[in-house]
Amino acid sequence: MKRIPTNGITYLEPLQGSREWYWGMDYTGGDLYEAGDLYRDKHPIQCNRGILVRYPEGTIYEPVRPEPGQYLGKPAYYDGKVALLLVDFPKEEIHILAFHEETGGTEPLAVLPLALAEDCYNLMLKTAPLLLTRAPQDDRFCILWPEQREFLLEERESFIFLDGDRMYTTIWYEDPDYREEVLVRDFKTGKVLERMPGSIWPTPDGQNWLLV
């Protein structure tokens, strides 16, 4: 049995779109809304740790060591690289970072004002392409970076991926049986161009399969 010294992180998840990478955190599970509550409440958990584990070697990387008031969100994988998300609550900044396996370090892709997000509810990286997004509880879907866009979606509809000017989303129903549809929206106007029964399943190599 291979022994992986994670220093207390006992749960790993596969990084979507990759066959080689897994990630894990000690607190919050990448939920930055919860992290914001911890910071404002002056909770003893002042930051969180995040690790990347490469399969099959089991090599562990901890590319960012957050300081008090800094919390990591869920990472993303796009174009052969791991992207990291960190919110610095004392400085009111959002950092998007690219991880480099060769050095074990990171380089900044963007530093954004935290006020851009209103709050951190469902603040996360999405692919493809690499986007910083936010999904409030009022059926809006917001893209915050690399450009700013906002869409009004239907109830129970959520973003999947963007392909040029075609934005793919998924929606589920219980009427009374459970079913799903895939919607294709015009990225410029938000107009629904197509509805397809079924669901999207992302494969480990970055493909998206339509299950019908």
If helices are DSSP runs of H or I spanning 4 or more residues, what is the number of helices? Answer: 1
Indicate the mean pLDDT.
95
**Residue fraction in strands:** over 45%
Helicity level: under 10%
Helix-strand makeup class: mainly beta
Uncertain runs:
none
Element order, helices and strands? Answer: EEHEEEEEEEEEEEEEEEEE
Head-to-tail CA distance between termini: 39 Å
Radius of gyration: 18 Å
- General shape: globular
Largest sheet: 5 strands, antiparallel
Strands, total number: 19
Q: How would you portray this structure in words?
A:
The structure is a single chain. The protein has 212 residues and is mainly beta. The chain has a domain at 1-122. 4% of the residues lie in helices and 48% in strands. The protein has 1 helix and 19 strands. The strands form 5 sheets. Strands 5, 6, 7, 8 and 9 form a 5-stranded antiparallel beta sheet that branches. A 4-stranded antiparallel beta sheet has the order 1-2-3-4, with no helix packed on it. Strands 10-11-12-13 form a 4-stranded antiparallel beta sheet, with no helix packed on it. A hairpin with a 4-residue loop joins strand 7 (81-88) and strand 8. The longest helix has 9 residues, at 32-40. The chain is globular and about 45 Å long.
